[in-house]
Amino acid sequence: MSATNAMDRDQVAGAYDRWAPIYDLVFGAVFRKGRRAAVVAAEAVGGRVLEVGVGTGLSLAGYGKGTRVFGIDISDPMLDKARQRVKQQGLTNVERLEVMDAENLSLPDASFDVVVAQYVVTSIPNPEKAMNEFVRVVRPGGEIIVTTRIGAETGLRGSIEKLLMPLTSRLGFRTEFAWSRYESWAAGAKSVRLLERRALPPFGHFWLLRYARLAD
Question: What domains can be seen in the chain, in order of their start residue?
Answer without folding.
Answer: 3-142+155-213 (3.40.50.150)
